[in-house]
C-alpha cells in the first residue's frame, strides 16, 4: 500500500511529498525544493527510509534542494524529462532571481520518459510526460492508490503558469486532457501548491479546463 505525507516547503509553500511503501518502509521524496531539515524530520516521524528523489520538473521551488539532499544522503535523482535540462542548468540563477538559498548543481541519475515507471518498495507508479508548464514536466500516477502527484500541471481551481521560458498554454491543456483525465474522475491529485482535489472535480468545475 502506498502512503504519503505532504510537507510544504520554501517561501512558495511548494507541496513536497514523501511517498512510501507501507510494507517495506522504503520511501522517495518528490520535489524537495528546500527546507531539507523539515523534510528529513517528516521522514523520521513516519519511520521511513528515504532512498530516492523524484522530480516533476526543475523550477527552483521544486528542485532547489535536490542536489544537496542527493549529495548528503547518497540518493539517486530520478527525473524529470530531459526537456527540463535548461532549468537544471539555470538553478543557480533561479535561486538568485527568487531569493532562494544557493542551489547545488546536479545531474539526474535517470531521466524519465512518458510511459516509464518508478518504484518504491513494492509500489510502482506510472510516469506521464505532461509538458506545458515546463517542457520536461512529468507526473507520477499510483493507479491502485488512486493518487497522482502532478506538480504544477493542475491545481484546485487553477492550472500551471505558462509564461515562463518553455511554457506553452495549448500544450498544457493537451497534457491535462490527454494524460490526466484518463486516470479517472475519482483520482485524487496532489498539486505542487495548495489543497488536493479530484480530477473529476476539476474536469467539471475548474474554469481553466472545464469541458477540455
TrEMBL record:
Keywords: Hydrolase, Metal-binding, Zinc. Its cofactor is Zn(2+). InterPro entries: MBL_Glyoxalase_II, Metallo-B-lactamas, RibonucZ/Hydroxyglut_hydro. SMART domains: Lactamase_B (SM00849). CDD domains: YcbL-like_MBL-fold. SUPFAM superfamilies: Metallo-hydrolase/oxidoreductase. GO terms for molecular function: hydrolase activity; metal ion binding. Residues 13-193 form the Metallo-beta-lactamase domain. It comes from the Bacteria. Residues 191-212 are annotated as: Disordered. This is Metallo-beta-lactamase domain-containing protein.
Amino acid at each position: 500500500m502506498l502512503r504519503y505525507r505532504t510537507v510544504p516547503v520554501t517561501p512558495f509553500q511548494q507541496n513536497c511529498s514523501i511517498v512510501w511503501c507501507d510494507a517495506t518502509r522504503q520511501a522517495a521524496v518528490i520535489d524537495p525544493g528546500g527546507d531539507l531539515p523539515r523534510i528529513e524530520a517528516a521522514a523520521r516521524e513516519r519511520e521511513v527510509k528515504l532512498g530516492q528523489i523524484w522530480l516533476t520538473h526543475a523550477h527552483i521551488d521544486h528542485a532547489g534542494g535536490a542536489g544537496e539532499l542527493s549529495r548528503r544522503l547518497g540518493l539517486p535523482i530520478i527525473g524529470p524529462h530531459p526537456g527540463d535540462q535548461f532549468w537544471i542548468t539555470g538553478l543557480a540563477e533561479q535561486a538568485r532571481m527568487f531569493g532562494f538559498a544557493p542551489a547545488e548543481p546536479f545531474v539526474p541519475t535517470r531521466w524519465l520518459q512518458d510511459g516509464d515507471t518508478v518504484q518504491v518498495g513494492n509500489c510502482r507508479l506510472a510516469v506521464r510526460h505532461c509538458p506545458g508548464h515546463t517542457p520536461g514536466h512529468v507526473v507520477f500516477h499510483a493507479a491502485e492508490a488512486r493518487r497522482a502527484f502532478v506538480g504544477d500541471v493542475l491545481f484546485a481551481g487553477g492550472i500551471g503558469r505558462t509564461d515562463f521560458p518553455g511554457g506553452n498554454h495549448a500544450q498544457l491543456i493537451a497534457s491535462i486532457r490527454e494524460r490526466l483525465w484518463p486516470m479517472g474522475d475519482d483520482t485524487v491529485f496532489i498539486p505542487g501548491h495548495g489543497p488536493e482535489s479530484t480530477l473529476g472535480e476539476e474536469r467539471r468545475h475548474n474554469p481553466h479546463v472545464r469541458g477540455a
